[in-house]
Amino acid sequence: MIDTTVFQDKKAVYYTLGCKLNFAETSSIGKSLKEAGIRTARRGEKADIIVVNTCSVTEVADKKCRQAIHKLVKAHPGAYVIVTGCYAQLKPDTVADIEGVDLVLGAEQKGDLMDYLVTLEKSAHGAAITTATKDIRKFSPSCSRGDRTRYFLKVQDGCDYFCSYCTIPFARGRSRNGKIADLVEQAREVAAEGGKEIVLTGVNIGDFGKTTGETFLDLIKELDKVEGIERYRISSIEPNLLTDEIIEFVSTSRRFMPHFHIPLQSGCDEVLKLMRRRYDTALFASKIHKIKQLMPHAFIGVDVIVGTRGETPEYFESAYNFIESLDVTQLHVFSYSERPGTQALKIDYIVSPEDKHKRSQRLLELSDKKLKDFYSRHIGKEAVVLSEHSKPGAPMHGFTENYIRVELNADKVKDNHLVKVKLGGFSEDGSSLLSEVL
To answer: What gap in Å lies between CA 187 and CA 257, rounded to an integer?
Structure first.
């Protein structure tokens, strides 16, 4: 039993890098520290404890993690420094060697951070506690409120796919998930707190059920029954796991929004094979067609990686033309980053940084056009917006059911309220639509 008296009135600061899943997990870590008597440091206060939750999706992410640690150590001299997350799991000794770091925890230990925080005495060198990837089995529940009004509910962790460019299976372990009954209870707790929107997060959420014998369709059907939650959004789901049954259920659900985020990664079949993805462009196109057939107004975001090894100019042009032909709303474009230990390093053809940049810019321009066209088709229509609190002096914003960003009149609307509006033209910066509250 840990003696928590040593932690009374201590102050902690938290820093999270990477995905929404990381933010949800940091929130749960913060909750466990709060229960032990550790409060979050206020602006300008010196913290006694620093917790950094890291990302390692790219080489740039690794660099940002190191920079963040250095900056926090300098800002909070003498603080006890704990580093966890994907970078900590993949490179524990490297992280432990960073000046000021006291404790490095891997993926299996992250959810039980308080079990390892037995003292706040700093040591000459950081200690690393991790578990081999093949032995990572624990699912640590996490649910957090984001910066706005929505909550992020972790339903799944890990991945069994081992795509050739990706280190996530090594950083997070094999696919595993929570029980539907437990996740439904967490959703009820969100509703009791006044939360109205939940985003379902995970590494590969369509793979839900590996450890419980349930399915993702089972999960969303049960969550749909929770009273008080007005909106659910599915954060990201692999195209081969996005079944027709899931699409059909969302199309008839009152609570699951017509909003999909589907990773494509490349619009060229030859590159998809090199990436070891589990679908081809024909399957992807069929999913887009199915969604639009049932929900013509649905927002569809798509992840694309440019400049992977093996992506010749001809392959990129093929990918670009395919993506251009899709009735999707927005592209999330990433430049390929070499990751140690991945199979992609065995592919000979290398894309230059200059070509990566050019290809990225072309896709970003295509994305801007698709998003603007999508918004334009909704001008003059009525919609229901969930309002989000704004910073002092800034306009209030919110999102429609199909994820159109809307500027609201703060004098007429309270935050975290559903409000009916008529959509107007583009805002001055072009990032949202103006609205008239009805």
So the answer is: 16
Distance CA 37, CA 59 (A): 36
Asked whether 263 and 278 are in contact (CB, 8 A), the reply is no
Q: How many residues does the chain have?
A: 438
Measured in Å, how far apart are the chain's first and last C-alpha atoms?
Answer: 57
CA 177/CA 365 separation, integer angstroms: 37
Residues 6 or more apart in contact with residue 152 via CB below 8 angstroms: 20, 21, 23, 24, 27, 142, 143, 144, 145, 146, 198, 199, 201, 235
378-380-386-390 Cα dihedral, nearest 10 degrees: 100
Instruction: Assign 3-class secondary structure to 384-436.
Output: EEEEECCCCCCCEEEEECCCCEEEECCCCCCCCCEEEEEEEEECCCCCCEEEE
User: CB-hemisphere CA count at 13 Å for 232?
Assistant: 30
User: Which of 107, 40, 110, 42 has the alpha carbon at shortest distance from 82?
Assistant: 110
- pTM of the shown model: 0.92
Q: For residue 51, which of 110, 125, 119, 115 has the smallest C-alpha distance?
A: 110
Decide: 149 and 386 in contact? Cβ < 8 Å.
yes
Q: 340-360: per-residue pLDDT in tens?
A: 899 999 999 999 999 999 999
Beta strands in 112-174, from DSSP E residues, in sequence order: 127-129, 143-145, 150-154, 156-157
Give 147's pLDDT tier (boundaries 50, 70, 90): low
Residue listed under structure tokens 């994820």: 403
Q: With beta carbons less than 8 A apart as the criterion, state whether 226 and 220 touch.
A: no
Report pLDDT for 309. 97
Q: What residue spans of 102-179 are helical by DSSP H?
A: 113-116, 168-172
Cα dihedral value 67, 73, 76, 79, nearest 10? 140
CA distance 94 to 185: 39
C-alpha neighbours within 13 Å on the C-beta side of residue 71:
10
Distance from C-alpha of 224 to C-alpha of 203, rounded to nearest angstrom = 21
